[in-house]
Amino acid sequence: MHARIGDQPRHYERLNLTPGVVQSWEDGLRTDPDAGTFEWWYCDAHLDDGSVLTVEFHTKPPFVSPKAPLTPFVLLTLTRPDGTRTDKTCATESSEFTASSQHCDVAIGRNTFREDEGDYLVHVEIDDVVLDLKLTAEVPPWRPATGHAFFGPDEEHYIAWLPVTARGTVHATLTADGKTRDLTGSGYHDHNWGNIAPRKVLDHWYWGRAQIGAFTIVTLMFVSQERFGKAALPAVLITHGGGFVLSAVGDEAVEFTERDLQVHPTTRVPFGTNLAYQVSDDTDTYTITFHCEKEAFLLDFGPAGAYHRFMGGVSLHRSGPDNAETFHARTLWELLHFAPRRPSDATDPPAGPGNVPLIGHQA
Fold first, then answer.
1. How far apart are the two ends of the chain, measured CA to CA in Å?
2. 351 within 8 A of 264, measured Cβ to Cβ
3. Of the four listed, 123, 222, 342, 345, which is most buried by Cβ atoms within 10 Å?
4. Per-residue pLDDT tens for 294-334?
5. In this predicted structure, what is the pLDDT of residue 345?
6. Chain centre to alpha carbon of residue 211
7. What average pLDDT does the segment 90-115 reach?
8. Poorest-confidence range of 122-126, 151-155, 346-350?
9. Cα–Cα distance between 128 and 130 in angstroms, integer?
């Protein structure tokens, strides 16, 4: 079977894309929501008060099959510095969904996610929570190759990912628990869509993003199912200030290591508590490491899979011919897992240091 990143001229031609150029319509509606597809627009914000905010607008909830009819769904999660969390969801009738195919302009009932002269404006009203958020990009949009991973002998199935705003400034007004606060911070926005349920082609994926001083990093690791050869389909972006430092796509360009494997006590999903991505350009080598400290969010889909969002430390180590330096920050990242889980009576792997060779290049 076949799994690959769409990085060939035929892929750009098929998708009407220009290499290295992201156009506004690419962040518009890319699917027919009623025709065996999924699509969502995502935004997160690391706020200066220590809170983390995530917002998702879905054509169908993440636990629903793409074969389902249009089922508009909004999810807002606020994690406060003390670890307490507020989750709000909204599901509406299909008649309350609109989206432009020309640019990002999505409405689900009273909730809106739209682009306005380069800024992203997000409005959410669910129960007693009201959010108005403005995200202003600080770096250009990035598409890893075509942004599409293709599956099948004729590349008939795909999952697409477009990190439109890898880093931006956030200004938000949030009303929750009867209090209204004005908040600032750093934000991110991406867009995902496809024509097949990820669980039918993927074993799992890891995604992460972080602001580390003047650097911004975005990481993705797709791992296909066994029938697709457990193919590693990674991508890494590193920016500094307002410009790109390095864009790496594919397992020949990204060395990925998953360390300290543990099994989640509830979902029985194996996960690496330390993840490392290593990439190089002509002069320097960069190593990005995520270290899990706690769980920020969990969605258990039962036999269909599980979604884990983790929080912890992240570091960027840069080494070159004349110097080496390491930068540290805190961030969140996710694991979406579809492979069979470990039985509840199985012996869990021991915690502690050590590499776990899974896929791709190994340290």
1. 27
2. no
3. 222
4. 988 888 888 888 999 999 999 999 999 888 999 999 998 99
5. 56
6. 15
7. 97
8. 346-350
9. 7
Residue 173, both tokens:
């007004």
Region of 115 please: left (phi>0), alpha (psi -120 to 50) or beta.
beta
Nearest CA among 188, 161, 211, 108 for reference residue 336: 161
Residue type, 281: D
The CB-side HSE value for 317 (13 A sphere, CA atoms) comes to 9
Local structure of residue 348 (DSSP, 8 states)? P
Phi and psi for 117 in degrees, rounded to 5? 55, 45
Residue 216: closest CA among 192, 236, 235: 236
Sheet of 215-224, strand order: 243-249, 232-240, 215-224, 202-212, 324-337, 306-319, 285-300, 270-280, 255-263, 355-356
Tokens of 322: 């004349």
Question: Residue 123 burial by CB count (10 A; 0-12/13-18/19+): exposed, middle or buried?
Answer: middle
The answer to whether the CB of 118 falls within 8 A of the CB of 94 is no
Contact 136, 168 (CB under 8 A): yes
Give the residue among 241, 218, 165, 226 at the shortest CA–CA distance from 331: 218
| CB-CB neighbours of 199 under 10 Å | 18
Considering only CA atoms, which of 217, 169, 131, 134 is closest in space to residue 46?
169
According to DSSP, residue 362 is labeled -
Query: What is the band of 144 on the pLDDT scale with cuts at 50, 70, 90?
Result: very high
The answer to which of 62-71, 105-114, 176-185, 351-360 has the lowest mean pLDDT is 351-360
CB neighbour class for 226 (10 Å; exposed up to 12, middle 13-18, buried from 19):
exposed
> Which residue, chain included where needed, has tokens 């509606």?
29
The CA distance from 36 to 72, in Å, is 14
Helix (H), strand (E), coil (C) string for 249-271? ECCCCCEEEEEEEEECCCCCCEE
How far apart are the C-alpha atoms of 241 and 326, rounded to whole Å?
17
Tell if the pTM clears 0.85, that is, is over it. Answer: yes
Which stretch of DSSP H or E encloses residue 311? strand 306-319
Q: Which two tokens stand for residue 9?
A: 């001229």
Asked if residues 186 and 43 have their Cβ atoms less than 8 Å apart, the reply is no
